[in-house]
Specification:
single chain, mainly alpha, about 75% helix
């Protein structure tokens, strides 16, 4: 059995793939639905608000995509890191790690299938969720320009590649899935804090996470994302190299 097929089977038989697609597709369908009927839900809850009145502006098309992005880049991101950690922690089960290492010439041949298959599943789940949100937004709130949505999806995928690379690096320098998840999430949480300084934030990978919401809302144009996209590409490559060095270190 090839290592590529092994990773595909691991993704499906452990139901990690099911978790990914369920989360992203669920958010894709309920995001625009929530945006469309939020005022109605607040009216239904009016009797429980002790006289308080909450009025929100009528939902517009980009609100549907914004709801999807907010959920996908919060809860969805946690699920993504957990799934990626489970695949990329080569030595989470020491006996399995030792068995596989003795049957490959290079640790890169062991790491590459896990990186590609994991990112492929995550990227496909995110894309399908975004397409579902795009369709439902059109049905409930109005259409969005393909010239905004498709680049937003591409930038979101680039950010998720960075997330997978971060998890891969953490997995090779820590012990176990739980520690990998904690280190990866902590490093990702630091980005928005540092990015609060606008001069720094416009260069960080985290600015790509909201591109799918910001482009349809005309908050930024596509040129705004050139710098963070370039930084993300370079940083992702560096993190993969760090993961490879960590994986090799354990063979010494």
């Amino acid at each position: 059995m090839s290592l590529w097929r092994l990773e595909l089977l691991r993704l499906t038989r452990t139901r990690r793939g099911l978790a990914l697609f369920t989360v992203y597709l669920l958010f894709g369908f309920i995001g625009p639905l929530t945006a469309r009927y939020l005022n109605d839900l607040l009216e239904l809850a009016g009797d429980d608000l002790e006289g308080a009145t909450i009025e929100l502006p009528d939902a517009v098309p980009h609100d549907g995509m914004a709801q999807y992005v907010a959920n996908a880049m919060q809860v969805g991101l946690v699920v993504t890191v957990v799934v990626a950690a489970g695949s990329l922690a080569l030595d989470a089960i020491p006996e399995m790690g030792a068995f596989l290492r003795t049957r490959v010439r290079s640790v890169w041949r062991l790491l590459l299938p896990r990186l590609v298959v994991t990112f492929g599943a995550i990227g496909l789940a995110f894309t399908l969720g975004a397409l579902a949100a795009w369709y439902e937004t059109w049905a409930l709130l109005g259409g969005l320009r393909a010239g905004d949505v498709l680049p937003g999806i591409a930038l979101g995928l680039l950010f998720l590649a960075y997330v997978v690379a971060t998890t891969a690096a953490a997995a090779q320098w820590t012990k176990g899935v739980l520690s990998t998840v904690m280190v990866a999430l902590l490093s990702l949480l630091v980005l928005p804090v540092v990015g609060a300084v606008d001069v720094i934030g416009q260069w960080l990978p985290s600015s790509l996470a909201t591109a799918l919401a910001d482009l349809p809302a005309d908050k930024h144009d596509l040129g705004h994302y050139v710098r963070p996209a370039a930084v993300t590409l370079v940083t992702t490559a560096v993190l993969i190299y760090v993961a490879l060095v960590g994986a090799r270190r354990r063979e010494l």
